[in-house]
Amino acid sequence: MTTPHPLDDTIALQWQPDGTATGRYPDHYWNMIGPFGGATAALMLNAVVSHPARLGEPISLTVNYAGPVAPGPFTVVARAVRTNRSTQHWFVELQHPAADGGEPSVSTTATVVTASRRPTWGASDAPMPAVADADAVPRARRPVQVPWLDRYEFRPIHGDIPATWDGSGEHSLSQLWMRDDPPRPLDFCGLAALCDVFFPRVWLRRAHRVPAGTVSMTVYFHADGRLLRTCGTDCVLGEARAQAFRHGFFDQSGLLWNRQGMLLASTHQIVYYKE
Amino acid sequence: MTTPHPLDDTIALQWQPDGTATGRYPDHYWNMIGPFGGATAALMLNAVVSHPARLGEPISLTVNYAGPVAPGPFTVVARAVRTNRSTQHWFVELQHPAADGGEPSVSTTATVVTASRRPTWGASDAPMPAVADADAVPRARRPVQVPWLDRYEFRPIHGDIPATWDGSGEHSLSQLWMRDDPPRPLDFCGLAALCDVFFPRVWLRRAHRVPAGTVSMTVYFHADGRLLRTCGTDCVLGEARAQAFRHGFFDQSGLLWNRQGMLLASTHQIVYYKE
Fold this sequence. Notes:
The structure is a homodimer.
Chain A: H1 6-11, E1 14-15, E2 21-25, H2 37-49, E3 57-65, E4 72-83, E5 87-96, E6 105-115, E7 123-124, E8 152-158, E9 174-180, H3 188-194, H4 201-206, E10 212-221, H5 225-231, E11 236-246, E12 249-258, E13 263-273
Antiparallel strand pairs in A: 1-2, 2-4, 3-6, 3-10, 4-5, 5-6, 8-9, 9-11, 10-13, 11-12, 12-13
Helix pairs in contact in A: 2-3
């Protein structure tokens, strides 16, 4: 018996006769007070990707982080709200049993669009920035404070997490090569998780560490399954920046390319921050 | 009795004893084969904003256009999936009665996050571009093909809809001043609708008109209600561009500023296109 990859272990679902799926959060991707949001995004997407009624491939994913994800058992309810000829719309809820046996609480919701893709005219207006090759960028080695940081290989090029929190920040742009550790062949769930690895832009912009957490994240998949399979376990280039910080919330936009410069996904999130 | 603004007439809801709301689509915002998607976004948001249990102001809105919106009566079901101390997470469905009396069909879903906002450190890293003032830019006067185009005043600065469809397109950037016609004081619903006024980027990028339609749109509100009230009926500057076109889908990102240069919203969408 082979040991599953930590991400596959985290997003594994047991389908039940009533059409729901159950699972249990292991601690591979634990963050400070709950799991890394990207692992939860992968879990929500997996409830659709692995659903017996799913048609087509993911086009769009929005994950809303509504409350803390409790450790232990959970139920995922994925419902095809509408199925068209070539697109399908899903609503997904992550539910946790109540300690007192009452109504389960919902920690996370998601909407997913899947579709059959066809060859069309195409163009990319978001070229990969000219950066050093992944092999030429040293891997960041920092004292691991939380388990999920150990689940990724980060090779920061620009805008790494500040070394000193001295309030000297001037921009919010980060560029880095990244991949799963241990390596894992890229797929839609792995890509969704990668879209959330960027540390909060407010930390970089201020060089000041404040409590922050993603409230809602959207991923648009430009890659289809065929392109993802060609990526294998190779590094992906990620870039993220913020646009506005105001009254406790900022937005953050990111792009992810494969090593050959093909845009794989664009991603956006709105993030809560304190102070 | 005063006549309501066409947008208010479109998003008007009658709350029912069972907690759902009913309405009826007038034709003020009709597009070619259904209503303008921005009007539907405003309707979905209004089901939360006007909900008796709503706490706080909108932070995030994702609208999924799952199927055609039928003319005539509809029901909106808005459910607070989770209510926290300072945030609330909503799921909204737009339902249309079946002709045969069977199960209603769902044309649109949405998730909304509302929150209490607090003063914090802030910064804007998306400054308004230097453009001509709204008064100096002539209003676009084109033969109106569909009713919704008459519901807005557009003053295009850059990247207007191509005058000739000759395949000469080179970029996807549009900048324009815009506001409701007749004028309407800006609020969250009006702003959500404005986020969808940009014509499909694929038309500009190719100077070639192909069938296209929004599949999912997300709006992050940087403005709070107080800032929106100061905008009144003044013009808003909008900017939109695409990032990648591939296999029948492209993504489009937009920013909206008030005349004083304050960022009001950032918005993203994934759009289906043919050919």
